[in-house]
């Protein structure tokens, strides 16, 4: 049972997220030989004021 975790900043549409999880699932099925039903994808979105790069919050950029 492959489990894929994706962490990204909030802001994508439902359609973008749906396409992303489909594409990830397709890649795991093709490359790892897993069945589609066995692939789990967890998407964690974080607010831009909870993530920083170089000491600067993404919300401040």
TrEMBL record:
Tree of life domain: Bacteria
Enzyme Commission number(s) from the entry: 5.3.2.-
Gene3D superfamilies for the chain: Macrophage Migration Inhibitory Factor
Pfam families assigned to the protein according to its UniProt record, in alphabetical order: Tautomerase
Molecular function terms from GO: isomerase activity
4-oxalocrotonate tautomerase-like domain residues: 2-60
Enzyme class, first EC level, given as a word: isomerase
Keywords: Isomerase
Coiled coil ranges: none
Active site per the UniProt annotation: 2
Family the entry assigns: Belongs to the 4-oxalocrotonate tautomerase family.
PANTHER family: 2-HYDROXYMUCONATE TAUTOMERASE (PTHR35530:SF1), TAUTOMERASE-RELATED (PTHR35530)
Protein name stated in the entry: Tautomerase
């Amino acid at each position: 049972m492959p489990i894929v975790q994706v962490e990204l900043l909030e802001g994508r549409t439902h359609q973008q997220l749906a396409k992303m999880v489909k594409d990830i699932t397709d890649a795991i099925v093709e490359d790892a030989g897993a069945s589609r039903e066995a692939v789990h994808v967890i998407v964690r979105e974080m607010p831009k004021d909870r993530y920083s790069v170089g000491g600067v919050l993404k919300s401040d950029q």
